[in-house]
Design brief:
The chain is α+β, with helices and mostly antiparallel strands. Helices cover 42% and strands 19% of the residues. Helix 8 packs antiparallel against helix 9 and helix 12 packs across helix 14.
Amino acid sequence: MKNLTSSLLTALVLCRSSASAQAPQDGGQVAVGIRVDTSAPPFRNIFLTWREYLQSGSGMYQPNANWSRADQDRWPFYNLTLPWTHLATPGLPPVRATIVAIDPVVPSSREEFVVRTLFTTVDTLTGATLPVALTRVYAIRENNRWVMANAFPRLTASWHTAKFGRITFVYPPEHRFNATRARQSARFVDSLAAAFDVPPPRSITFVVADRPEALARILGVDLALPGTSNGRSVTANLMILSGLPIYGEFYPHELTHLVLSPLTHQLGTSSLVDEGLAIDIGGSQGKLFPQLMRELDDILNANPTLRIADLLDPSRAQDSIANRAAAALIRLTFERAGTPGVKRVLAPVKTAAGPNHWLSAAQVLGLKSTELGAAVRAIVRRDAR
C-alpha cells in the first residue's frame, strides 16, 4: 500500500494541469451514495449531467456541453479539480467516482446546487479502497439547462486583487500581502522570458492562500493527498496557485513552468527535464539548489552503484531523485554552454524508450556518456558543500 500511495502522489504532482494532460482510457465508474436522490427533478437532472460529464473520458479536457460556458470561456483548462481526480501516470488502477451529495447552496432554494464526489482507487495488493480526493462542483442554470461550474469564482468573489506588471494577485482579505515579493515575481517573469528569448505571458493570475487546505478548498477540493495542494501552475490558464507561506507572492519554481511552457512544449521536453529546469531556476519545496544537491549527494553516496545516467534514463520512472539529477544536468549545461545550450538540451533525442535528454546533453557539451556522468556528479558534489 505504501508503494501505491507513493505512486498516487507522484501521479498527482506530475499532472501539470495543462490542457493536454493525459486522460483516462474511459470515463471510469460512477456510483451513487445513499444520500443522493435521483428520482425527481432537479436532483435527477443534475445527477445525469454530472454523471455524463464524468463518463466523457477525454471529453473532460475538451469543450463540453455539460460544463458552464462561462467557465470554458474563461479557462482553457476549465475543470480546476481535474489534477486531483484523474491520474497522469500510466499503469495505476482506475479511479472510481461516487457522487455522495447533491444539496442546494441555500436551503430551500432551487437556484444553485453543490455536488460532492468522492474519488477512490483500489490497492491492487490488498483490495482496500483508498480515497484520492473529495471534490465540490456547482450545478447552475445556463441557457435553460443544468451545467456544472467551478467553486473558485464563488469562493474568491470577496477576495482582494493587486496588479504588479503582468501579474494580477488574488488573495483573501485576512492575508498580509507582501508587495516586495509581488514585485520580485513581476521582475522574474520578464527577466526569465528575456533570458530564454520567449514572449512573456500576456497576463498571469497568481492566487495566494495561506495554507494548502485553503488553496484546495477554493478550487473545490475538500480532501486531497498530502503535499498535492502546496501549489502548482495551471499553464493553459496562465494561473499560479500558491498555498504555502514560504512561497506567498513569489513562487519561482511554478513561474518557471508557466513562463517557459510554450518553449518546452515546442521542443518536446519531457516532464522530468521540465521539472529539473524549474528546480535549477526556482528550487523546490521551499529548498534552494544547494540543499537539493546535498540531498542528492547523500543518496548517491549511500548507493554507489546508482549512476546519474541511470536516473535520467527515459525508461525509468520519474521521482524526486531523478528530478534533482535533471536539475544538476541543466546547471552543468548552463555553466558550459549558457542559455542557448540549455535550450538545445531541452530538445531531447527521440529513442524507442522515450525522449532522451542525456544524449542531447552529451551532443551539446561534446562529451562521452561516462564523461558527462562524471561532470554532472562533480556539480552535485560541488554545490552540496
